[in-house]
Design a protein that fits this description.
The chain is of the alpha/beta class. The N and C termini lie close together (about 10 Å).
């Protein structure tokens, strides 16, 4: 994490690049953003260039996914929502169900997707001076 102070209490950060973080009991992995405010949350592979930054409700999960078309989408899930129960349902403002993401990305070139994510993270880190 690129900040002046240490990681927030009771949180785990891995490869997090953020100007400001207010997190409690969170796990953040591969995240780049201006700011992140979350409690009891999980963020995975998130690239967010919004001015307001990331603000998650208590217990939310957010993951950014690059589809094999090259489009980046954001998926949300609330911690109590069981994935198996919501597998074919559109939940929490997502644009498609988790099953839809899974089937649409079948056969995707994961190396190309990883390269695209690395580019997005790198561009935003440079823009934010991180």
């Amino acid at each position: 994490m690129r900040r002046a102070s240490s990681p927030p209490p009771n949180s785990v950060f891995s490869n997090v690049n953020v100007l400001h973080a207010e997190c409690e009991n969170c796990i953040l992995i591969n995240c780049t953003a201006r700011s992140i405010k979350a409690k009891n949350a999980l963020l995975y592979n998130v690239v967010d260039d919004s001015e307001e930054g990331i603000v998650l409700e208590d217990g939310m999960v957010r993951a950014d996914v690059i589809m094999k078309t090259g489009e980046k989408i954001t998926l949300h899930q609330h911690h109590p929502t069981a994935g198996r129960d919501a597998w074919k349902s559109i939940v929490h403002g997502n644009t498609m169900p988790f099953f839809g993401v899974y089937t649409a990305n079948a056969g995707a070139d994961v190396s190309a997707i990883e390269e695209q994510f690395n580019t997005l993270h790198g561009e935003l880190k440079a823009k934010l001076g991180l």
